Structures are given as structure tokens and as C-alpha cells.
Amino acid sequence: MLTAVVLILPVGLFLIVRRLLGRRSTTGLSVPLIFFAASLIVGVVVSFGTVGGPVVREEVVHVNGLPEGLDGLRIANIGDVHIGHFIVPEDFALAIDIVNRRKVDLLAITGDLIDDLTQLEPTLDALERSNALPVISILGNHDKCPNETAVVAALRARNPRIQVLINNSVVVHPRGVPLRIAGVDYPLASDGRHMLPRDEQDAAMRRFADLAFAEASPGDTLIALSHHPEFFPIAAARGAVLTLASHTHGG
Prior knowledge:
single chain, alpha/beta, Purple Acid Phosphatase, chain A, domain 2, 2 domains, 4-stranded mixed beta sheet
């Protein structure tokens, strides 16, 4: 479908030019048929380009004043899995196995883990394969609407292996060094819309930050988790040395 949309403009220009020139097709094939065939071919080529399993993207983040014991800390961030029709728990388990081979210290799930509630339990079974302790999860807009109660209950039932943060924080001790992790909720509108006007969105995020950072002390090394990346400047202003997000599907 995306390929067809991309091809609409050149095909439309082609039809306009042909009409202006008064030319007709001499091949016997109609333009809609050619358009459909081209969309199908290009779409298949693009789709095969995405086959091959999860891709790990590594980033090195330099933090001023980081406690010596946290130097080299390895954090995995997985978001926008959307387990449902196209991604199944077995795919997620493969991603967890890849993370395990990287020997990470901490695994963050930054929202939109599940679309199909019938696959929630096997999804959490896959998540529990993680060797990283703890596993910290926050909610995305797809987790919240309309599944928030069930998703939160299932995540919390898996404690202490999995911790879900909703506008609160927790202190963990990777490598024996205290690290505070704050997780904020997603600013979802009451009718389920996830694109609030910018001023309303920022106001909601500031309220969430007040709650999530309430127990933080000036000397804490603080990492923030937010499904929406627009939270970055708010977290930085509150002392977060790093914010992990998703929502942009790999962007």
C-alpha cells in the first residue's frame, strides 16, 4: 500500500502528460494494470529487503560525571514490537535471545509491546527469557488503549523479574552501583487519540515528570524511560543523563 501511494505521483504526472499530448497506449495494457503490477513488484522487493530478523544498533553514550562502577554499562532498549498479526511471541523471543548474547546489564521495554491481548502471556514468557536483571517496562499508546488494565496487571504479576513504571522510579544496582530509573506514562487523550496538541502534550509530560522524578535526589545517576521521545528535554531539565524512548519505529 505504501509503495502504491509513493507511485501515485509519477503515475498521475504520466497520465496528465499523456492526455496533454493526446497520446494513447499502443501496448494494449491499461495504465491501472501497469500501476498495479509496478506497485506489486516494487512492494515485494522492498519487503524482502526487511527480511532477516532483528537488527541490533549499538550506540555509545558518553556521560559526564558517571560513577566509575557504571562505566561501560550495557543497556538494551526494545520498543514498538506490536505483537499481533505481523509480529508473534516467537519473534520477540528471538530478539530477547539476541540481547542475551550481548550480555547486557539492563533491559528496557519502552512501550507498544502488545497489540493482541490473546498473545500477552506467551509474550511475557518470552520476556522472562532475558538474562538482564532487572527488566524495566513502561507503557506505549498501544499498550494503554484499550488494553491498559490487562497489560499492567499481567506485567506486575511477573514481579520481581519484570518491573513496570508508570510515573514513578526505582533504584536498581547493576554492577553493585545504585542507578535510579524513572518511567513516565504516555500522554494519551481520553478518547484514545495519541496526537494531542503540543501544548497539552507538554503539560501532561511535565505533570508526569513531577511524579516520576519526585523521589530523585541531586546525587542520583538518573535514566528516564518514555515511549514518546518528545520527553527528552523535560527529562534532561530534571537531571536525567540519558532518556530511552521508542514510538518512532526505528527512527
